[in-house]
Amino acid sequence: PEARPAPAKDPAPPAPAPRPAHRAERWAEAARLKTRGAAALTPFVIDNVQYLCVANFFETLKTAAGPTKGEAAPSTETTSSIWRIEDDDGLLVEEVQTFRSFGAHGVAHITSEGSHYLAVSMYYADFVAILKWDGSRFEEHQRLPCEGGGGICAFVVDGQQRLAVAEFGKKGVSLFGLEQDKFHHLQYLQADGCCHVSTTCLNKRTYLIAAANWSSTTKWRTASTVFSLTRDVFAPSFDLSSGEGSSTLTYQGRHFCFVAKHKNPDGSCCRRSPLYEWRRGKYQLVQELDHDDGAHGACLFEATNSKLYLAIACCGDREKKSYSRNSPVYEISLDPEIVVRRKKSLPTTGAVAFVAFDLGGRTYLAVANEQDEQRGGNVESVVWAVT
């Protein structure tokens, strides 16, 4: 679809009143969010209020004209949402703002010198939308050039806020830095097949993981590249498994990385993905973890009970239009040997991402459900109580 301007103004009527809160037991459903082909989420706090922004890739509408009139079809011109989440003896969720997006694929929150920004990458637009908080809502602030936006992440180098954006059209990653209230282009990294980016800082050095799953030259054998930052320039350092997404975390002084693997080298559905630990200057394989088909994203997080968890988002099989899956949550303990055991299996539909956040002394886990077999992109995403 042709990309058009993406104002931050609400294009739709105000959302209905929030659902009554209920205190959820551990690992029970705590809330549901009305999403539209959810592709990514990011939690953030402004003035002690918890928010969650959801980047929506598409919604399913009935066609108004033509030979398919009346039939359901995806529309990537939709709206993405910002939800306020309160702890009132349970979760109270309310959609407080929407903004127009075109195949939104990633979202990141940035804070600098008291200002708050949201960066939204879009596959069907030629820009990344930068929205800025005006004290009561987010307004469009800047557009960054982008060709087929994929995953996006925010990180800090020497006190400067930065963005990394996967660009399908350019077959790589673009880096931007925030200076005097504006983002400026810093560097482009060649990374064919990259669809997701994440960063970590180890031994005072920043690393960027460009998760890649398929390229025109190496097909499903495409490796994910880890870039290291030296003298403010990123350069390739070593490779990891191919994957749709990755997650990193430092826990009890040890550094972990998980790559969510979608396909095997022969193109068949993959049902095992690698967990790595940083050893001797690079990520070394610890073990491969079982999951349902279509692993698209993951979230390593430490909960308020001081335990380490890994949630793996399983999308299912898009080719067969089969999306209902069990997305596993693993508990990882260090004693000092690494012991990994499956803690829960969460029912998801077209799951592509997980995020965790703490509120009211409890940890919650939210999934981005992209679609299901009957409703297309018009499915709800779910928040579970972890602790």
TrEMBL record:
Is Repeat among this UniProt entry's keywords? yes
Biased composition, class Pro residues, residue ranges: 8-19
According to its UniProt entry, one GO biological process term is: cellular response to calcium ion
Q: Name one GO cellular component term.
A: cytoplasm
Residue ranges, annotated region (Disordered): 1-23
Q: At the top level of its lineage, which domain of life is listed?
A: Eukaryota
Signal sequence segment: none
Q: Which keywords does UniProt give here? A: Repeat, Signal
A GO term for molecular function? adenylate cyclase inhibitor activity
> What Pfam families does the database record attribute to this sequence?
EPTP
Q: Which InterPro entries match?
A: ADGRV1, EAR, EPTP
Give the protein's recorded name.
Answer: Uncharacterized protein
Species of provenance = Pelagomonas calceolata
